[in-house]
Write a structure and sequence with these properties.
Blueprint: E1 29-34, H1 40-56, E2 60-64, H2 86-98, E3 102-109, E4 114-115, E5 118-119, H3 121-125, H4 152-169, E6 173-177, H5 197-215, E7 219-223, E8 257-259, H6 271-278, E9 281-282, E10 285-286, H7 290-303, E11 310-314, H8 321-325, H9 328-341
Parallel strand pairs: 1-2, 1-11, 2-3, 3-6, 6-7, 7-8, 8-9, 10-11
Antiparallel strand pairs: 4-5
Helix pairs in contact: 1-2, 7-9
């Protein structure tokens, strides 16, 4: 494994129409996905952990913000009693830069517009933008609510929200989520139930791409599960698609960064070479299972491909800074990269 040779891709220039120059990092992405840091006091707490994260090798933070921001364009969509302010965001961005960490915000698109019985602000304030309006009271019988991708009001609102977050953080990239979308073909999904799910999914991705990459000139990341055909790669219906969205993989730009998440132990993670062969840059993503995380990293390292970015460690709940610094999958995973670079 000649891991050092793969570092050339960090200065790769993406020349597809409308795309942007890829950002240069000093080594492989050693990234962590965080959420639950929902207001300025949380960001100050996170800032205290940045020197320790940098010392351990973290050079990218993907911070899921969603509606936890003091939006000016649509203040009615602020979530929680307190939110992230522009000043709070700017301070965290400055601290990340000081510690050599690239800060990338995330805003969940299309799916994940609710959790359990709680519906998030967009579909609470504007229920007419719900993909399944009036159906599934208290979200019973569904995983998460989704917005209507063919209502033009959605993009008008969401683009404005994203722009505020990007500008506040002075961000050069945005993660759009797009995982675990299940309602496109639902009988109550009036605008999409008779449409090709792959066309619908690609429509949303391309709308986001045109705004973020073409207009805002930032890079775009997304989860990869809906682009994996579960009939070909049998990950099951969560880590791959059984609802017809997978053909969208050939309908979206290839300079999108795919965060390919798999959380359980496997001998091989076939979707990674699939995404690479399609021309995407790939950021394999693991969670709390240390053995699975290490197996995923080991498998990715064997591929020795210039579009292999590194690894993303997800957490999925807010951690005390001291606990975060000792997060075992991250600590042991970064040690794997260090070992690989010494070979």
């Amino acid at each position: 494994m000649h891991w050092r040779r793969t570092l050339v891709f960090f200065s790769l220039i993406v020349i597809a129409a409308g795309s942007v120059e890829a950002i240069t990092l000093a080594g492989p992405w050693q990234a962590i996905h965080l959420l639950g840091y929902d207001h300025d006091a949380d960001l100050q707490e996170l800032a205290q952990a940045l020197p320790g994260l940098a010392e351990r090798g973290i050079n990218v933070i993907i911070l899921e913000i969603d509606y936890h921001f003091e939006f000016q364009s649509f203040p009615e969509l602020r979530q929680g009693d307190a939110q992230i302010s522009v000043d709070g965001a700017r301070n965290l961005a400055a601290q990340c830069e000081k510690n050599g960490i690239r800060l990338i915000p995330q805003f969940q698109c299309l799916g994940h517009q609710s959790w359990a019985k709680q519906t998030f602000p967009l579909l609470t304030v504007y229920p007419e933008l719900d993909l399944t309006p009036g159906a599934y009271p208290e979200n019973e019988g569904i995983y998460c609510r989704e917005w209507d991708p063919f209502n033009p009001r959605v993009n008008e609102i969401v683009f404005a929200l994203m722009d505020e977050i990007i500008d506040a953080l002075q961000a050069d990239a945005m993660h759009i989520g797009m995982d675990e979308v299940f309602l496109i073909g639902d009988e109550h999904a009036v605008s999409t139930k008779d449409k090709d799910p792959a066309e619908v999914f690609a429509h949303v991705v391309n709308d986001m791409y045109n705004h973020l990459v073409t207009e805002k000139k930032v890079e775009m990341l997304m989860w990869g599960d809906r682009l994996i055909n579960a009939e070909v790669i049998d990950y099951g219906e969560w880590e791959a698609s059984r609802n017809g969205t997978a053909p969208a993989i050939d309908k979206v730009p290839k300079d999108i960064i795919i965060c390919d998440w798999h959380y359980e132990l496997s001998d091989a993670y076939e979707s990674v070479p699939m995404f690479l062969e399609k021309g995407f840059r790939v950021l394999p993503s693991s969670w709390r299972n240390v053995e699975a995380s290490q197996a995923f990293i080991a498998y990715s390292l064997t591929l020795d491909h210039p579009n292999m970015l590194g690894h993303l460690f997800t957490t999925w709940h807010k951690m005390d800074p001291k606990v975060l610094l000792e997060y075992e999958p991250m600590v042991k995973g970064i040690a794997q990269f260090e070992s690989a670079q010494k070979r």
